[in-house]
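Predict structure. Input: LysR family transcriptional regulator, 292 residues.
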Amino acid sequence: MSFVRFETMAKVVELGSFTAAAEALNMTQSAVSHAVASLETEWGVSLFVRDRKKGITLTDIGETLLPHIREVLNRVEKIQQEIALTKNIESGLIRIGTFASASACLLPKLLVSYQKKHPKIEFKFYEGTYEEILEWLDSGIIDVGFVVKGKADEAFDLLPLMKDKMVVAYHENHRFKQQPIVDMEELADEPFIMPTGMYQSHVEDIFSEAQIKPSILFEVHDCTTIARMVGEGLGVTIGPELFLKTQQLVKISHLNVSHHREVALACPSLTQASPAVKAFFDVAETVFTRIQ
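Output follows.
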């Protein structure tokens, strides 16, 4: 049984087409099709449903087998890294899941330090929501993920990185610009843009604890869109300082209540992780201890 065929199947699923998988793997499309067909013939099952309108989707048995195939590929990667270490030659790939503000503010610091020590390790990045990152970790799509504590405490091994305060954001000419600290009572009558995405629960908790009902004018999922709307003066919002301080069109102030999300690094099992992933956690602990 060839691991190349496993890799080919996983890549077709990841990219959603035989053509894209062929380009990514530097293979011909016919070679990709042959690899999948040979697996189907060997196992006596159909792995994909090919539909002109819907494209390529996994069959039920394909869905069942995919996590096992990814686990095999992950094990092979770990074996290769262990062998490379014995030869004093580092090699390998780390697949990292991250959300927008972590990509912009946390990941660069970590990568700079890591690559100085381990320049031959390659990276692949997946950006998504909190929930998507947890799903990718659970299914083996990624090796490491930036997560928010509370959502992943029991399922994965975690390394806390930082506490990210929730702050209020507003247009640069808003009256709040003279107030480094804004009282929650002052938000009661402000047109409010409520996030419906990753940090909605944090914002709802803040209002609930303050016993205030926000005057919601808009409900928006994308955090970048929210920042742009605030920058146009359409309302104020509450969100994580890590993200909002990077948005040039908005100004921020702290709230008179303390509320934060705790960002952590997660992996399914640190004891079973590859040498490259273990080193990534070691570097992360050093980097963020120094920052704090």
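The radius of gyration is 23 Å.
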